[in-house]
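User: quick one, fold this
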Amino acid sequence: MERMGETAKASGLIVHTRNFKMRLEGPTSGKTGNLAVAIEVFEVVPSLYMVDVRKAFGDTLEYHKFYKSFCAYLTDIIWITPAEAENKQTMPLLGQ
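Assistant:
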């Protein structure tokens, strides 16, 4: 939770944390209002957590931009299956 909060603050979002829930709010208004993101953390087993990240309010495109950059900062703690890792390595980049 702490690492996600630091990442959100670095992106310029206002962070509200309570228990295993976090609410991120954009300081400026977009096309459809301030972006608000809800994050909830679930403990699957003591060493594995599932994080639910969803748009609570605001522009969908702005949310997708936030989500991509948010995940990019957290790649070292995000677990992916070996099949997903293989697909990422073999997938060609757009424009090449």
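User: anything notable?
Assistant: Residues 9 and 73 are 12 Å apart (CA to CA).
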